[in-house]
Amino acid sequence: MPNINFMISLRTQCYRRQPRMSCRNNYLLQTIFVGVFVLVSLYLLYKGESVQHDDFLLVNHEDNDPPKANNYPVVNLKCLNDSAAITDTGLVHRKRNNYNHRIYLAVVCCGDRSEETLVMLKSAVLNTQRKLHFHIFAEEELKPGLAKSLKSWPTDFQAKIEFTLHSIQFPNNENPEEWKSLFRTCATQRLFIPDVLTDVDSLLYVDTDTLFIRPPESLWSFFNEFNATHLAALAPEDEIAEVGWYDRFARHPYYGLAGLNSGVLLMNLTRMRSFGWTEKIVPLYHEYKQKIPWGDQDLLNILFYYHPDRVFIFPCEWNFRPNHCIWFKSCFRTNIQGVSIIHGSHKVFHSDKNWPFRIVYEAFLKYKLGLTPETHLVQNLQRKLSKLKSSDLFCGKTLLQPVITTLNSVQR
Questions:
Q1: How many whole angstroms separate alpha carbon 151 and alpha carbon 162?
Q2: How far apart are CA 347 and CA 357, in angstroms?
């Protein structure tokens, strides 16, 4: 930046030596020069920061400088066509990914959640171009019905999936009924998947009350963004910490400013086992079990509070919930990115309390695989959107229009 005192000195000398009009012209030129210099400097600074954010082809991760717990990273939302190989220097080099590779998708189904489970799996297979392997953890009495329904899918869609049914199981020397009833029935099963699927390297876990609007492989591609320490990825519980649950009510440590939501979870099972995942989770439960109303989600928050370098944060459109729109809009990324996964937490898929979520769920429930999605799914939602009243704007247009736009884009 030019020295202002120096320029004032020049101006004074000019008035002493030259006519006033000539000095004014010189001073005007100097002022224009300073303005141009400042604008060019700001542009170059902005351009440099943009390059740093967008350059995901070669990323330097320092093991001794983990990400701060209170800062969510900027992530690139493109569905990457490459995978990461971490070298000894900590540099992440990208290479072409084999898109014939399976995506492993896990869900836990207990009680009255069979219908939700099957609708979620339907949304996944409808939107994917990849082979999916479903790992379904379910109560024994639910297994036959789940298997029968999956085997009744049209042949083209059966060819895209494999599935394995697992029993509900918890660590030895622990009270299984106590773990099973913590928060919602069987919800804590997700915490112990690394101990069960010992031959699986990486996994995408989702709650039963979720719907894929964008392909599962787009979420799976966030594994490519993991550095050498990341072993899981989640979305924030809230975008505005001050109005979130954890900031106001939590009686235990939690990750970052607003905590994490466990409804959509990427898991590198190999790293979790090496980390001693279960050996860390179980003692945390016994220490905090009187202070964790959200069960498994609270335990994940406590663990990542103590190990913030182990978690990767993906953005809110991949776990869009009622708290993003019920009072005011807080997930603004949907304006451009659309909605990728809907999470109907608090049973809004089955309630008139937040009817836009129920409308999307019922559209997927009624849709039959094999029919044209544009006609039998998207147009149905468009008709619902056209009937919105001004009083329905919050979760109405905030949810339905981005869902329709995203589905149209995916199905084309």
A1: 10
A2: 10
First to last CA, the chain: 52
The DSSP code sequence of 215-255 is -HHHHHGGGGG--SS--EEEEES-SSGGGSHHHHH--S--S
Q: Which long-range contacts (CB under 8 A, 24 or more apart) does 243-247 make?
A: 243/327, 243/330, 244/323, 246/301
Name, of 210-214, 334-338, 383-387, the range with top average pLDDT: 210-214
Alpha-carbon distances of 191 from 239, 240, 241, 302, rounded to whole Å: 24, 27, 25, 13
SS (H, E, C) 171-200: CCCCCHHHHHCCCCCCHHHHHHHHHHCCCC
Indicate the pTM of the whole model: 0.77
Q: What is the pLDDT of residues 112-143, one digit of tens each?
A: 999 999 999 999 999 999 999 999 999 999 99
- pLDDT at 258 (0 to 100): 96
Treating both helix axes as pointing N-terminal to C-terminal, what angle do 4-17 and 20-54 enclose, rounded to 10 degrees? 160
Rounded to whole angstroms, the Cα distance separating 349 from 248 reads 26
Closest CA relative to residue 213, chosen from 118, 319, 289: 319
Domains of the chain (ranges, CATH numbers)? 68-314 (3.90.550.10), 322-411 (no CATH)
Note the pLDDT tens digit of each residue in 384-406: 888 877 556 678 878 998 999 99
